[in-house]
Amino acid sequence: MNRRQFVKHGALAGVTAGTSASAQRAPDPPRKPIQVVVRFHLDDPAIRTPEEPGPTRSSLRIKRLTELLEKLGVKAEYAFVGGVVQQLADDFPGTIEKIKALKLPIAYHPGAGHTEPCPVGRGSPPPPGAPREVVWEGLWNFETRTLTPDWRFDETGKLVRGNPRAQQPITPVDLPLYRLPAQQSWLFGGWLAIQNTLGVTPLQTDAGGHGPLYEALGAGYPISEGEVVLPWMRPRPGPPARTDGIRIPFELPELHEVHLFPGVRPTAPKYYRKAPGVDAPRTVDPAEWFEILARNLPGGKNFVSGFLCHVGADWERLERVMSFLAARPESFRIASFDPESDQWRPENAPLAFYRRTYGVGSLAEVRSMNAPLKRIHALSEKSAGVPGPGLWGAPPPQVATGPAAKIVRPQSLTADQILEAADYLLGRWPQGTHDGDLGAPPALLQTSRGALSLADAFEALTASLVEQRKRGRLPTSVRLRGLRGPVDFPVFDLKADPKLDPEKAKTGYMPHEIPRESMPEDPDVVNAQGLPPCGDFHVWMPTHTKVEADDMMAAVERVSGQLTGHVPGVISVRMLTEDSRGREPRWLEMKVNPAEFLYALAQEYRAIHVWGKPGPVVMVSMKVAGSQRCQLIIPYTADTSRGAAVGAVRFEGFIWRAKMSVEELDRAWTTGAAGTRR
Q: Quick check: 625 and 594 in contact, CB under 8 A?
């Protein structure tokens, strides 16, 4: 297709070429290392069996991890379940002392653990409609006392479910009945078990320990902030102080097991009605992910990426990624919360808090206390209206409401303004959640020209990259025609409206399971909505994938011919497939949505600005607009034994990106009639 044909098809509504745009601009500010906050959820307490009387698998892994951190000279946050730290103290008291010596950040993972059966009781949920004092009292008992589990060993030594003493505080005499050591340390419940074993009160970070109950248990003390203060972390009571990304860095998508250990099924990317990894894009290796981001992100800004997993998912890969990050201090810095280790100061010790607050002389006395309901109530009233953390550490999705102000739909943009839009976008990556909200681009992109729409940024970036592909240089300015939004984005209706089920709100909302007959009949419509999620059972996260420079630029050229009045709702990009991992490489044309492609456009524009040529980019699964509802859907079959989803049916789950009307799609990308032409 020649230049005249491009113009005819709307690819270049107007491009002003000249000397290299990158040569005219001031150089980028010095690049700051990406801060990588490494966290582990240690939530797998095991029942000791006669066949395995030695250290538990969890203890062995934590010992090995602690030795790795010591060798690398870095810190990682340990979010403990109480039973795990108790087992670790029994198995490897030297590791407990090493954790204390390293002053690792210690957080709390609520609940008794993910394994079933658990070695200690889980705590019974309050009856529906119970007064909050009843809820507080039940949680206080669970967090201070070890409860009897809902299982027992019969006279033959076989483990059987059911226990008449379940949920009652365990006694020293009863501990051996559950193969727990007859030690006072095992009488402490989840939160108090950590305080008793390590001598610190957990941090209020992503895992748990928020709210008035936990403030009554010692949370909320002042801690050092350093450069890593995220919006959902509250080191002091009240909302955090925001400083425009200086002390609160720009957040990058978090890496979870599905990203850290690619190729391990069933955590591969999954399309609706296909097995995990089949004809799906390849999950990028975490080292490549970090390297591409470090190359493509704006300079002079603080970026932080979460790195969250459970010890032991894939030890060799875990050690390889950690060592890679530690060996590249110019590009990455393994960071941690509480860099000055204020958590470990004597004045913040749990017993010091309990003495000041309740006048007790030991943690054993705290364990025997009734819940301080008056204090919890007062703390609840004090914190009313203060925003807490969002689901799984991510802030709640920000949805634009009301009329937008000072929106500009310009007739032209300079190269500097286009770079501003790209940088604004790359500083605000969507934060996908554990349960299927994939996140979306910001509603508007702020530039020196004013608030820019997603559609205008899409057109300007595409036209600029087409000129680069044709002329070998970015244009100095681009004329725009003002495209509509992605009005041909594929949508469908579910036959039932899924609702979040509060009864399942234990470690995060799980979706209400709806009948299989309510699922969409045409998988192609679902799968064309964008990149698939990846995950395992109810843990579904966005896919992180890679696009090579040549494939990206070829996709840009194809897209330029589609700009005939609106942003295309479905874009084809060539990528490696996940199911060819470890075999002969296989490539397919994957379908991505315009929001996903927009972030790739911004990366490519910035790469050319800095390096003078295109480079590889990364894409992340996301929804097309912030106002679009997005969550995990798990169908169930009515004739299953429990009347709900079971293992095989769970793998038919998919991420539901709710239907949006043509008008809603257009407004989301153009800000509707509020924009004025200048």
A: no
